[in-house]
Amino acid sequence: xxxxxxxxxxxxxxxxxxxxxxxxxxxxxxxxxxxxxxxxxxxxxxxxxxxxxxxxxxxxxxxxxxxxxxxxxxxxxxxxxxxxxxxxxxxxxxxxxxxxxxxxxxxxxxxxxxxxxxxxxxxxxxxxxxxxxxxxxxxxxxxxxxxxxxxxxxxxxxxxxxxxxxxxxxxxxxxxxxxxxxxxxxxxxxxxxxxx
Length: 196
Fold this sequence. Notes:
The protein is mainly α. The chain has helices at residues 3-46, 84-100, 108-117, 122-181, 189-195. The longest helix is centred in the last third of the chain and has 60 residues, at 122-181. The radius of gyration is 30 Å and the shape is elongated. 19% of the residues are buried.
């Protein structure tokens, strides 16, 4: 096989890789768009709005706004919860704080077990409901956050695929240019190396 044929085969294979990388990048962008759109629309339906900025000025333990919420929750003050990072802040730094202040730390299994042991305790029965609802909402919000991370990873993967496609396209063009410079010959690559 002569050098020109080898150059053409390598450049042709590179062209196939370019097409595959472009397809992977396009699929990555689609996945990111799909994920982010779904996270946004599902969170919008919950209609959760972060407390106003003024609420964080009077943060106090045991109230709706605690000092631990200032670093993370206050940055979204007054905004509607629509993104994965917002969902994580609300779940981990708002709901989890309030659950931890409940009897048994708001752990559903512990509260439920205690309520079953004391079935006449109405206050404990109410805590079971609150714990269940808080834990469920927290889990759903953290799932939305996880999917938003998948969307972000898909975006970066798509960008990487497009960059690699661009670099590979340059190499493919150089390969085809080099093949044009080579004269077709009857000598094979093994003949060339044997005479050197």
